[in-house]
Design brief:
Thiol Ester Dehydrase, Chain A; about 30% helix; alpha+beta
Amino acid sequence: MAEKLARERSARYDAIERRAREIPIFDTLGLKDMELGEGTCRVRISRDTRYDGIYESLHGGILMTLADSAAAFAVLTLVDPDEPITTTDMNIRFFAPARSDVVAEAKVLKLGRTLVPLSVDLTDAGGTRVALAQVTYMRLGVR
């Protein structure tokens, strides 16, 4: 029984990774090292000065995109990987400049029938928290 569940989880995670690679922004921003767990996703963006803001650190909009992407993949670990979902709202608090690679770690707080709230921690290569995002996704295929 446990082996069957592990195979199903692996197949679901493979489907999510395939879906991620088909999203143009995933490749454009160079998102990598995606790790999936039940209701979680960890993904990294390499620092590229082309995406800096005015303070020679990763632009806040890039960090929001990273957080939003990690949140989406975390949701998909708990539902059908092909289920249509969308962001309904998002906020982010910036704590420090991001002058190195950044890792986003998203965690589903509650899998609702329609809404899925998440938190996303963003840390730099030194382990400093650079931002914290709160995201809510809507499950569009659920009736």
